[in-house]
Amino acid sequence: MTETIDNHMPDLLLNILQHYHHIAVVGLSAKPHRPSRDVSAYMQHAGYNIIPINPVYAGQQILGKRVYATLADAKAAGEQIELVNVFRRSEQTPPLVAEATSAGAQALWLQLGIANQETRERARQAGLLFVEDRCIKIEHARYHHLLEKQL
Which residue windows are coiled coil (predicted)? Predict the structure, then answer.
């Protein structure tokens, strides 16, 4: 059974943050002032492996990591993807469910301000853990005292 944040389940957030340390970030920007960059740098500093996904920067490096055009490209290059963190407009998220599943992810996280009912339903059907309209950096900071011994 897929769990969602719909019922404000802090256990779901903590479970994801404790167990999924390889995070593909769809929409990671090379621009330092962008939220995707700030959030990803924070998570990397906290000990998570960040895998940048952005076709604009494919082949370049962001945060010292090679950027891939797609999740499939990252998987083909041997990257382990457990969690997909999304910085894209809500209407662009439904196809990411199938892409995340194909890449081996167990969880899909839509950042603060990003929510989509179709994506939520597809994630449930695919068996993915699913979070929407929440910032992974904020949630990590909230549970930091429980997580610091995990990584």
Answer: none
